[in-house]
Automatic annotation (TrEMBL):
Organism: Loxodonta africana (African elephant)
Source domain of life: Eukaryota
Protein's UniProt keywords contain Cell membrane: yes
Keywords: Cell membrane, G-protein coupled receptor, Membrane, Olfaction, Receptor, Sensory transduction, Transducer, Transmembrane, Transmembrane helix
Protein name: Olfactory receptor
Coiled coil ranges: none
GO MF annotations in UniProt: G protein-coupled receptor activity; olfactory receptor activity
Amino acid sequence: MNNFTSVPMFFLTGFSDVQEIQILHAVLFLLIYLAAVLGNVLIITLTSKDHWLHIPMYFFLKNLSFLDLCLISITVPKSIANSLAHLNIISFLGCVSQVFFFILSATTEVSLLTVMSYDRYVAICHPLRYEVLMSHGACVQMAASSWVSGVLNAILHTASTFSIPVCGSPEVHQFFCDVPQLLSLACSYNTVELVVIGLSLVLDFGCFVFIDISYIHIFSTILRIPSREGRSRAFSTCLPHLTVVTLFLFSGVFAYLRPLPESPSPLDLLVSVFCTMVPPIMNPVIYSLRNKGMKMALKKLLKSRHCPSN
């Protein structure tokens, strides 16, 4: 029986021990990672450079893109490097860093999505008070609160997860240091971590209820709009956020609110891949396909590249 701090490194089982499959995994992960980085960096660039996008909705979108960039960068590059080196290990400090920053990014994203639902609520239900309620100072405070909640939750989870003794081989049946897998290495139940998980679930459920209430008011207001064009325009401003919330929350629920199987299975890896990689790569696509502001900003950026004199 050893403490977590006495374990010099952890072994990540990954996807396969076959060299060819490891190389294929590295190539696929690299392509997905590059696509996610390109999409999120593009959104950050557009929302920063185009002054027409300097409004609350795009301010929060820029924060969301940065979080998605962090979320996928925490786990995927290390997994790619391990596959190419045919050495699936991670140091103790590397494992702690993955747990801390993964929880920080995920928690902050849940809080930010909740704030974004409030932004849509104010924009549609109280348009005359929008500039007052969603001033720049208020937006900064809401975004900062989301980040603070993420940091506090990450500190609690990381400290409680690595405060218990380990039994047996420090082998993590994942491609990154995932909290449920780390807890399965413990010699006994980690009561402190279970309490922290319970508090996190309560806060996540509170965010989910807040988002639901916001959209009940939003949809009731949209249905009272007399013109069909007005209803369509109002709904189109909510559709990307609603899609992102559904994708992120349901992937998280499916990955972490189900019993951990006694023996590892390929399904666990696929679920983790979906949870950690699909939202960061899909969110830029979702927010770009139906967003006229983003399309116009991209056209202006491309035009300025071709015609720098203008």
